[in-house]
Design the sequence.
């Protein structure tokens, strides 16, 4: 069956549906072609008047060739993208237990606040006298972050978590250079359980990465760190709570050992949401930590960005914070944009302007709404919810580090699937059919067939009860040999399993007009 | 707390099911002396109305671009964004979804990324584009690193017309990576001799057009010389609308094109979030940073899209990855794609002509003011004025008179002896009244 674009229609005609339709649509499940298959080059959805005659100043560098951009009218545009949206799963669709990603509720108040004209419709290079409120907001956000972490300074400008990591590691590198130790201190310790961004960041600015192996209790041990410490070590990059969903109990001892060796403690703050209002990273000996505003403080993930990754810094690193930053002056707030205007020793600049203002507004709106009591409660509820799932599944699924309390996420391995012929990937795809977004799969790498479940504080008890019951049912099905339910899954999603090998082997990264002959053959 | 569904009864029942008496038993691994007993020293929770009042008051202290005659550019531009764009990007399924790692339930995101990549490739005249970068400046830094990987050289030459903040981002990254950077002197007239800097040691030349002073650059001779010496041309733009009217960097021989996409679909946002556009030739895709979306089929043979070539990326390659990047600028790239779909080729070309026409009109009117000289021979929608007085002072005075006149060059390049230069941008939102207000206010101040 072909639809009107000559493309195979979607949603499983090969085996699962006995009632094919003429259009390929299945009621609310609509087939939506690419923009390039429905757009026209002479169509536009905006009304603009052709300018009066004028003398161009393009100096002969005007465009001579057509661009190749089809357009749609406004109603067509609306329908095209609404239909595409309906093929997506979001937090508002259902439980989204993607471990390490913190898919908590995105309050719409925060969206409304970010769109206030004084924040969304101001230019980064307007006179500072005309943006005092925007600078006040940045200053206030910084104050909240510093208070929650007990650190000395904050660099707001990094544009995402990995960009924040880069900022923190650059500050460490600058501090080492200031001490004249850059020729010798060039090793960064990274536990095997770390996010891939950690070693990638360290390597990007010339550090050698030395792994710290994982122990079978899921923790980093101070003696393993000490064994690797020496005058060549610049820093450790430690995630806490770690990617196994556990708080590192020896973190204070590790920090002391690192400092005694003349090195710095970079903390990956991806999991800060478990301990906001419960413990302060500054008290744990952290020198630099990025905070994912899009996780901990609920700015929307938006299908993969924009993120925002401010970095809090200890007194030892604060002087090296990059430009720009906000400073309270005698006549209001000042914006320090040039290294030469800073009293300190900024290591440079991370991005053209002041960072993700739109995300700052949303994050501050979240913090004001929750308050100190609400943020503490949110951390406790996130941890409670994860442990409730652990308690509900511990007898059927396998916990690699024993049935001990976890933080905001619970990590299972695939030992419970042994001899079933079902893999972690299969379980994930079967969860899709049950109406859930899968958990994080195969991460962290230190656990075989990892399944990392993070429910967040946004889930009700009833929601968790159903989720646990669903996973118990899947676990029983796997153990009882109902492989069919898994290996062909998903059966009910907008697409069946997609061929990723084919996509990588012969990359097709943009639409090209089909050759007429090929179209006839189809 | 309105965002937290658990009641105290729920919490008690759940703690009992887990087998602990108090939630702090779940925090047992936190050193006892460091576990906070009381909430931190910040205000308690607030209702919606209270939050709205606090933030609205802060917002009201700022002068928004739409409320005054507005001519500020230098890397971010005030354009009209259709209401449809902002509505669609707030669809829950776009706004609250994650990176499309489960493609069967993320075809919406993946298909628009495929459309985005196709649009960016077309706009830049290149063969392939990625799924976006954080912004134009970080994209430029990544482009330089990519050129180093391709050429196996470590020296970049930055044009004196490159936005100074972009140059700072590249320099910061390069210094930290111990790579060489040659930055040419500020080039107000667009006449620098960059060709003489290109030799066999150079990995890439980074040239912006329209440059930060507004001049259009002929990239062809630079591309030719670079290629002769085995170097790459990285073409940068900060005003995406210009590509509707100006010859594409791809048609002029660029190897990597990187730019700021904010102008299409995205608000000024005081500097972010924005969306970096990044395009290159097919032969370099495995050295490209950032996410890529590719076409494939599902188990039933139906067309679908997935993230692909992830063996370049940090979650697989760790310290051997092409970049540490873990995200793109998802929702901003969606805004770009929707706005570009509404415009289409016809609309974008016309929008670009209106921008150019408005800038020409403004330049003509300003150059008639005593004490004002327009320095550009060529420009798109932004140009440089030489004033009889320091530009920073003039801009402050004009702001007091309700006109946001542009960016003093001294703000971007302090101490460069360019204190009397002012960058002025004009887009489709400027009217004859705006221009008249600018001219009148300027006459008063000069």
Sequence:
């Amino acid at each position: 069956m072909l639809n009107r674009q000559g493309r195979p229609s979607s949603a499983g005609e090969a085996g699962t549906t006995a009632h094919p339709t003429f259009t390929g649509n299945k009621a609310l499940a609509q087939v939506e072609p690419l923009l390039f298959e429905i757009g026209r080059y002479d169509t536009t959805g905006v009304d603009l008047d052709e300018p009066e005659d004028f003398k161009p100043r393009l100096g002969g560098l005007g465009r001579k060739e057509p661009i190749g951009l089809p357009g749609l009218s406004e109603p067509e545009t609306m329908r095209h993208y609404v239909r595409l949206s309906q093929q997506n799963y979001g937090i508002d669709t259902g439980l989204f237990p993607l471990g390490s990603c913190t898919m908590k509720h995105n309050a719409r108040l925060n969206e409304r606040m970010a769109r206030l004209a004084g924040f969304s419709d101001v230019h980064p290079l307007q006179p500072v006298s005309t943006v005092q409120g925007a600078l006040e907001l940045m200053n206030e956000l910084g104050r909240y972050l510093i208070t929650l972490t007990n650190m000395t300074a904050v660099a707001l400008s990094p544009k995402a978590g990995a960009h924040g990591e880069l900022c923190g590691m650059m500050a460490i590198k600058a501090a080492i250079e200031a001490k004249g130790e850059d020729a010798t201190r060039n090793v960064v310790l990274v536990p095997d359980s770390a996010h891939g961004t950690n070693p990638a960041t360290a390597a990007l600015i010339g550090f050698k990465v030395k792994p710290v192996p994982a122990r079978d209790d899921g923790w980093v041990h101070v003696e393993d760190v000490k064994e690797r410490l020496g005058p060549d070590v610049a820093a450790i990059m430690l995630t806490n709570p770690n990617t196994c969903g556990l708080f590192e109990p020896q973190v204070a001892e590790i920090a002391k050992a690192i400092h005694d060796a003349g090195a710095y403690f970079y903390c990956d703050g991806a999991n800060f949401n478990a301990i906001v209002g419960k413990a302060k990273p500054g008290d744990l000996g952290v020198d630099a930590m990025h905070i994912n505003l899009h996780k901990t403080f609920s700015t929307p993930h938006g299908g993969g960005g924009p993120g925002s990754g401010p970095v809090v810094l200890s007194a030892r690193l604060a002087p090296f914070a990059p430009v720009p930053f906000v400073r309270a002056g005698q006549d209001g707030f000042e914006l320090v944009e040039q290294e030469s205007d800073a009293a300190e020793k900024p290591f440079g600049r991370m991005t053209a302007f002041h960072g993700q203002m739109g995300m700052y507004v949303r994050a501050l709106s979240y913090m004001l709404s929750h308050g100190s009591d609400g943020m503490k409660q949110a951390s406790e509820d996130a941890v409670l919810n994860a442990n409730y799932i652990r308690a509900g599944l511990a007898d059927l699924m396998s916990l690699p580090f024993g049935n001990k309390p976890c933080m905001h996420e619970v990590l299972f391995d695939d030992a419970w699937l042994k001899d079933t012929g079902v893999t972690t990937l299969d379980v994930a795809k079967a969860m899709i059919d049950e109406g859930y977004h899968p958990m994080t799969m195969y991460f962290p790498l230190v656990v075989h067939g990892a399944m990392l479940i993070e429910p967040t504080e946004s889930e009700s008890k009833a929601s968790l009860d159903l989720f646990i019951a669903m996973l118990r049912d899947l676990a029983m099905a796997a153990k009882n040999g109902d492989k069919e339910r898994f290996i062909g899954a998903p059966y009910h999603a907008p697409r069946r399993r997609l061929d990723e090998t084919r996509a990588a082997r012969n990359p097709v990264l943009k639409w090209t007009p089909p050759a007429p002959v090929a179209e006839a053959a189809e | 707390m309105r965002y937290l569904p658990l009641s105290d009864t729920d919490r008690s029942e759940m703690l009992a099911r887990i087998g602990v008496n108090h939630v702090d038993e779940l925090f047992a691994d936190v050193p006892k002396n460091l576990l906070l007993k009381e909430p931190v020293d910040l205000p308690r929770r607030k209702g919606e109305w209270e939050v709205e009042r606090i933030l609205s008051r802060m917002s009201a202290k700022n002068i928004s671009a739409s409320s005054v005659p507005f001519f500020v550019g230098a890397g971010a531009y005030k354009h009209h964004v259709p209401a449809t764009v902002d509505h669609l990007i707030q669809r829950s399924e776009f706004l609250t979804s994650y990176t499309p790692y489960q493609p069967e339930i993320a075809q919406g995101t993946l298909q628009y990324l495929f459309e985005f990549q196709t649009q960016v490739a077309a706009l830049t005249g290149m063969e392939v584009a990625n799924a976006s970068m954080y912004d134009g400046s970080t994209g430029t830094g990544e482009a330089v690193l990519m050129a180093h990987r391709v050429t196996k050289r470590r020296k970049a030459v930055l044009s004196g017309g490159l936005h100074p903040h972009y140059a700072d981002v590249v320099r910061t990254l390069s210094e930290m990576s111990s790579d060489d950077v040659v930055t040419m002197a500020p080039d107000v007239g667009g006449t620098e001799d960059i060709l003489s800097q290109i030799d066999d040691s150079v990995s890439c030349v980074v040239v912006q057009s329209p440059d930060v002073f507004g001049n259009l650059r002929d990239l062809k001779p630079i591309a030719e010389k670079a290629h002769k010496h085995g170097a790459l041309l990285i073409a940068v733009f900060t005003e995406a609308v210009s590509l509707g009217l100006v010859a594409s960097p791809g048609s002029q021989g660029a190897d990597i094109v990187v730019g700021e996409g904010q102008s299409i679909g995205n608000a000024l946002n005081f500097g972010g979030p924005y969306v970096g556009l990044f395009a290159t030739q097919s032969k370099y895709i495995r050295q490209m940073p950032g996410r890529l979306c590719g076409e494939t089929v599902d188990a039933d043979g139906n067309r679908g899209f997935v993230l692909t070539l992830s063996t370049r990326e940090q979650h697989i390659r760790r310290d051997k990855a092409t970049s540490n990047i873990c995200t793109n600028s998802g929702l901003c790239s969606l805004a770009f794609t929707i706005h570009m779909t509404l415009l289409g080729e016809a609309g974008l070309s016309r929008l670009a002509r209106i921008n150019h026409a408005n800038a020409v009109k403004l330049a003509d009117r300003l150059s008639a003011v005593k004490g004002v000289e327009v320095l550009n021979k060529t420009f798109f929608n932004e140009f440089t004025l030489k004033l009889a007085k320091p530009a920073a002072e003039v801009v402050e005075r004009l702001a007091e008179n309700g006109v946001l006149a542009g960016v003093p060059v001294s703000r971007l390049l302090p101490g460069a002896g360019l204190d009397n230069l002012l960058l002025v941008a004009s887009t489709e939102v400027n009217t004859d009244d705006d221009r008249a207000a600018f001219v009148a206010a300027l006459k008063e101040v000069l």
